[in-house]
Predict the 3D structure of the following.
Amino acid sequence: MRNIVTLANPGFDSSKLEEFKNIWVFCEQREGRMMPTTYELVSEGRKLADQLGVKLCGLLLGDNVSGMAKDLGAYGADEVILCEHPMLSVYTTDAYAKVICDAVSELKPEVLLIGATNIGRDLGPRCAARLHTGLCADCTHLDIDMTEYKDFLKGASTLAPERIDGLGTAKVLGQNHDISSDLKMTRPAFGGNLMASIICPRFRPAMATVRPGVMKKASYDEAKAAAVKVTPYAARLSEADMSTEVLEVVKAAKKLVDLVGADYIVSVGRGISSDVEGGIKLAEELADVLGGVVGGSRVAIDSGWLTADHQVGQTGKTVHPKVYVALGISGSIQHQAGMKESECIVAVNKSESAPIFDIADYGICGDLFKVTPMLIEAVKAAKAAK
Amino acid sequence: MDFNLSREHQMLRKMMASFTENEVKPIAAETDRTCTYPKENIDKLFDLGVMGICVPKEYGGAGADPLASAICIEELSKQCASTGDIVATHNGLCCDPILANGTAAQKAKYLPMLTTGRKVGAFCLTEPNAGSDASKGQTEARLEGDHYVLNGSKVFITNGYVAEIFVVFAMTDKTKGTRGISAFIVESSFPGFSVGKHEQKMGLHGSPTAEIVFQDCIVPKENLLGVEGKGFKIAMQTLDGGRIGIAAQALGIAEGATEEAKAYVKTREQFGRPISKFQNTQFVLADMELASEAGRLLTYQAATRKAEGKSYTKEAAMAKLWCSEHAMKTTTKALQMFGGYGYTQDYPMERMMRDAKITEIYEGTSEIQRVVISNNIGL
Amino acid sequence: MKILVCVKQVPDTSGKIAVNPDGTLNRASMQTITNPDDMNAVEAALKLKDETGCPVYAVTMGPPPAESMLRELMAMGCDGSYLISGREFGGSDTYATSQILAAGLDTIGIEEDDIIFCGRQAIDGDTAQVGPQIAEKLHLPQVTYAAEIHKDGNSVTVKRMLEDGYMTIKVKTPCLVTCIKELNTPRYMTVTGIFDTYSKPMTVLDYEALKDNPLIDKSTIGLSGSPTNILTSFTPPQKGAGMMLEGNDMKTCEQLAGFLSEKHYI
């Protein structure tokens, strides 16, 4: 068995809560380009840091990435902890986990936020296990301030208001624990049919991976960009730390569809199976008329009708366009998890009992191959009339 | 008395239900419309051990029992009776008689071909002028030195133009009627073997039915199955077992049609409510479920008796008669619930109804089943 | 060389979800299935078995009824299985769960040539944490999101998917790989497998069997070993029922376009 990775600070004890301070955001960049979700997290982290009255620090790892620090400041970071090393130029679990755990064990933040990207979800659990702390995966809402948390629950849950107002402590190992300064991490389970708020009361840092596209990005502030403080942190890495070798990194050749940023999405599902090409063509035409893009349910992706970047749902993208049109999608909870926050949902389905109609603002029960061409004409006419 | 399936049989049903849902259902309508033999799925069923399921492991089979075979045929037939038919014929009418009557050498040679060798089997008894009355068969087998020479033709042979191994019945002594019939294992590659007309049928469009022609067909002497003159007995025994397969197939068709109807009546609204809320619909469906349950008990009982080495001639005939008549009635009534839609090819009901009809005819008509039952009730 | 596959029995969420009045999941009313990503992990393992002849063992932590899942996986071709089950393990979060699984795997024994496969994430929790945390606790290298796996001697080359492409990663065994659905299509159980499965070995590892493992300690397992606590769980409010438009002809479509226009969506 390989040698145990030791922390830079061997005396590190995640249960000494009082030693931990400040909120950190892991700033994920790939090939010198910041992942958009980093800015969302920095914006959200700013709010949390203000609630606690502490600093917000960006943790930036890479090689020759110092130029990216000011943008982190612009979105709200007070400080950027900069770790530059040739072995950090491409992401590896070994190198990134080591540097992050070293930095955490020495500098002791109380909260560490990571984007729930494929890399973040590889890195987060590995670090949490090494640091002996709790990690809440794929969060969609974060709170510290109790008033804000209660307001959020009142809008987002079916819990009785009295019960929400009564929240203040949690039973932790048989003791009443005051939750007012804990990070309350809310996440969906079972495709969003069930939500849970998680706390990490006994260990620090409280860690969360946060679903991309959920937190709102703040506006860019030039003054803050100039004011950000950059603190270098020396990465201690050697070949002995590495157990994997990255042979190549390949970008998807095709331009991927930007579902997350789209205002209009027309998605197709099992309903197009009788004429896949025709169904996709109709969806594209309607998307064109609306000024949007085409998406698909898991069936459409698994059947090879559309590439994976088109997938909306639990295992695909979470979207919130102005208008989401579901053509021939029955609307499993996994699909709904990715699109039910759309402002307006239009569903066309043959089956009156399709669950998609339960959440649709407007439903048409009919054959999508007959309805869609008429809908295209009707939308064109309505737009022309304006 | 234990009415529960064993945990293995339950697991088998689950596996077959999933296979049917994912592999069979998506192509069932297309298979019917284009009259295509579902080769890919049959090859997969070979790999899963469903084709030749009762063949012992030493010959490449799964060594399972007749109940396991029935469950497989039932599940497949819920979505595609053609696929169920191909399996039923292969297992019940080709593997079974070779297993029951073959010499050690015959079993060692042919059973692996019918399992790991992925060769499909068939059964040749019916002739243009000898249907229910096999004694009027015209196909002749003449012993000439180390081989037999077969002449004649067989009709309505299931798996006819895809099978490579045939259990064939021919007269070795025309003067003796049924006691002059002998059974042979014939390979499609034997000289003088040919496939005649491909039948255009009312249903079971995915099941390849053809005429088989023997013109001075050379069959090695060692391919005589059982002894000369005992072919009729082999045929009757084989059909007893085959009937369990057809009962399972008919049962599957009826269950499939019932499921489709149940799903449809809950979504179809007339007069302001789903038609499932009308008592007429409910009572018809109740009768359908009841008849299926009875058919399942009859079929599984016959299969279990066969496995236990008990006589099952009467039980198999009862199961086949009950299930095939039930399948015909149920598909007719289920189609009715779909109204005009049921008559169109947009829904599977008309296909299920066409497929159901044959189960009242082949491997002994309903009339013959009544004869068999009558012969076994002490009259 | 052997392959250990970590699997989980989960409620089947493809149908309707049943939730108790208190906001917890009504597990009793739901069918269980093997977690879908775990099926891809099992298939990956069985493919390697087809190529190399190495034995494959399924490992799960769960209540005794999880045996039914293990039997099905053995009917697919796994050679044996381990059921980690004990009251002491209940209430574990992902940290404690991975601690127990790691102890179980360590007790089974991980040798130089071995590979551990996991599914990317389970559909009940969707955390994707247990795989990497097992790897950390066993000090094994990990590769997550595997869409292709090739074994060559004592190294494994994995196509690891990213949102915008992929990486090709080479890793030495022993290692842990988490699998995604793009990796393969799980096979069916076979008839022979089904009739043999109850004669294949299934070992139950309870607290007694694991308690001497260095990873097992009251402070690392169960509720008391879990760094996270559920503060509250709840169901989101149902979105107000929308409008089913009458008919499905041109008039209906014009009506819809009218609504969208009125509300300034178009």
About this structure: The interface with chain B takes residues 71-72, 75, 188-192, 194-195, 197-198 of chain C (CB under 8 Å). The helical segments of chain C are 36-52, 67-76, 94-108, 130-137, 191-196, 207-210, 250-262.
